[in-house]
Structure formats: C-alpha cells, structure tokens
Amino acid sequence: MSIKSQSLTQLALQRFKKNFWGVFSFWVIVCIGLIAVFAYVISPDDSSNANQMHLSIHSQKPGFEVLMLTIPSNENTEQNFLSSLFFGKENLDTEIPISDFEVKDREMKYVLYSSDGIVGEEKIISLDVFPNANYKKYIKSRRFIFGTDKYGRDYLSRILIGSRISFFIGFVAVFISLIIGVTLGSIAGYYGGKIDAAIMWLINVTWSIPTLLLVIAITLALGKGFWQVFIAVGLTMWVEVARVVRGQVLSVKEMQYVTAARALGFKDFRIISGHILPNIMAPVIVISAANFAAAILIESGLSFLGIGAQPPMASWGAMIKDHYNYIILGKPYLAIIPGLCIMILVMAFMLIGNALRDALDVKN
C-alpha cells in the first residue's frame, strides 16, 4: 500500500476549498477585481471618471430612458488603447438629452428634455455639424440602469469606476503595511534588547493614536489626492502586522532549524528571510485579509469626510456623501447602492480571512 505525502500548503488548500463561504468570497473578490480593471470597457459612460453631466436629467430613477443627441467635436484626440482602458476616453463631444426632434431643410430642430411635464426649450442646429450630414447615428435612446446622480451622470458607470479606488486601496495599503510591519517586526523579534524596546515604543505610540485621526493628519500633510490616501492608509496599518510578526519571530527564533542555520554561518538576513519568515506567514496572511477590509472602510470614511479621492473621481464613499440627504427625499437608492457595494466587498474580505484562518490552523 502506497501512502501519499501531502505538504501543509496542499492540506490548507483542501481545507479552504471545503469552506463554501471562503470560496464564494474568493470569486466575489475576483469578479469585483475584474470589474475594477475593465471598468471603462463595461461602463455605459466610458469617458474619464464617467463625468458626462446632464443636469436636465439629474436624480432620475433606475431604468430611466431618454433620447440623447450627440454633437460631435471637430477636434481630433489621439489616445492609445491602454490609456482609454485605464483612464477612460477623452470625450469632447457634447451630449444633450432631448424629448423630440425634427429635420427640415438641412436643419434640425430639437426640444430639450425637461422633467415634470414642462415643455423644454426649442433649438436649431445645422446638419453640417454632423459628418456627411448623417445625424441618425448621433441620436440614440439611452437607458440608465441605476438612474442618474444629482449631476445627471450615469450612476451605474460611476459605481463601476468607483470600485477601482475601494478595491486597489486594499492592495496598496496592505503592500505598504506588509513592507513596514514585517521588516520592523522581524528585526524587533530577532535581535531583541534595545532595538526591540525602541521599535515597541514606536509601535505603542502609533497604536495609541486613533486610526482615522492619524490617517487624516497624514492625508493633510501629503495633500488631498488619489495616491496620498493610499499611502496614508498604508502608513497606519503596519502596527498590527509588526506586533504579530514580532511575536511569531520570538517564538521560533530558538527553534532547532534556526540554531542550525546560525551554526552553518548563515547571515542574519538570510536566516530571517529564508528560514523564519516562510514559517510564520500564516497569521500574517490572515491579518492582511482583515486589513484589506479595514483599508476599504477607512478610505470610504475619508471620502465621506471630503479628504479622500477628490471630484470628479468616482468613489463609493464620496457617492454616499453626495447623496445621503436623498434618503429623506424619496430616493434612498442613491446612497444605498454604493453602501451595499462597500458592504459586499468588506464582507467578502472578512469571510475569506476567516476561511484562511481555519485552513491555515495547524491544530485542525
């Protein structure tokens, strides 16, 4: 009878696959990640930041449909595929919601859309503004699946593009926190003494400052902006990683394989990076999953306070800020939809963190 030996990684993977909510959360995160990367490909409004405003159709309900007249611009914009994929198209055309139009004598007379049954203003333009006077392809019926926001922008497009900030801030913040936390934690745990005392003093001071207050202070110091928020959140999340890594290093640095590495004359860097860290990464992975969720909530809070991603950039937290007063105005979905998106993404990371904790637990 042959006995198959399985590595701890394979055993952990098998345990993870048996956890329904862990696997489900993994695929939810994968789907949101793909949406974040290809947001401009699938968004109805693929202009930069989905910022096409139509004030005449502001705050319309989901499923709203209107005729959209596009007046082409004479300016040529050269933009490569990658730029349009990641930053949206530079759309210089003018979009006008209309309720009716009539073509006569190489002129188009159209009626501007107006809500509440009011007849809109009539305007006239020459057909010469359209290439070859072919106006038909520039008048299309457009449906807004999630309705429009208070500026008349397509809400679905803003939601899709807003996923980028909430999703990628987790990666950037966790990456920064891992670099700082693992480095300081391993140095403190391995060398001990005064070095450990100095690093622990820094950790305790940072830990004593409220996270949101520290993030606000760093954000104000670096300035308002996209990358500033990412860095600020990352610089506040390394403390817990450092404490856990320090404790794990303290517990394993006297193990036999570490003593053998010292006896063979290996340098401290090689011992820490090649022997200690690979054996203590299980709890760090679990903390990283929780930090993903925390980073998303912190960024949403900053955007809600107005010091996160700045307009016209789409952010779920900023969308809640712009529309939370619509809850009492009969249009609560404008605040509920981005709130649900934040809840789903945070819950997915928390559930996958719990699944990883169970899968990596050697006592099971």
Could you write a compact summary of the structure shown?
Belongs to the binding-protein-dependent transport system permease family. This protein has 364 residues and is α+β, with helices and mostly antiparallel strands.
Strand content: 5-15%
| Domains, number | 2
Mean model confidence by pLDDT: 87
Using the 3D structure, state the CATH architecture of the largest domain. Orthogonal Bundle
User: What do we call the CATH topology of the largest domain?
Assistant: MetI-like fold
Task: Write the CATH homologous superfamily of the largest domain.
Answer: MetI-like
Instruction: Outline the biggest β-sheet.
Output: 5 strands, antiparallel
Main sheet: which strands, in order across?
4-3-2-1-5
Shape by Cα distribution: elongated
Structural class: alpha+beta
The strand count comes to 5
By CATH reckoning, the class of the largest domain would read: Mainly Alpha
Number of helices: 14
How large is the radius of gyration?
Answer: 27 Å
Portion of residues within helices: 55-70%
Distance between the termini: 26 Å
Query: Which H/E pattern describes the elements?
Result: HHHEHEEEEHHHHHHHHHH
Low-confidence stretches: 1-5
Write structural notes for this entry.
This protein is α+β, with helices and mostly antiparallel strands and 364 residues long. It folds into two domains: 55-144, no CATH class; 155-360, MetI-like (MetI-like fold, Orthogonal Bundle). Helices cover 57% and strands 10% of the residues. It is built from 14 helices and five strands. The chain has helices spanning 8-18, 20-37, 39-42, 81-87, 155-191, 193-208, 211-222, 226-235, 238-252, 256-263, 268-276, 281-305, 316-323, 333-360; strands spanning 64-71, 94-104, 107-112, 122-126, 139-144. It has a five-stranded antiparallel sheet with strand order 4-3-2-1-5, with no helix packed on it. The radius of gyration is 27 Å and the shape is elongated.
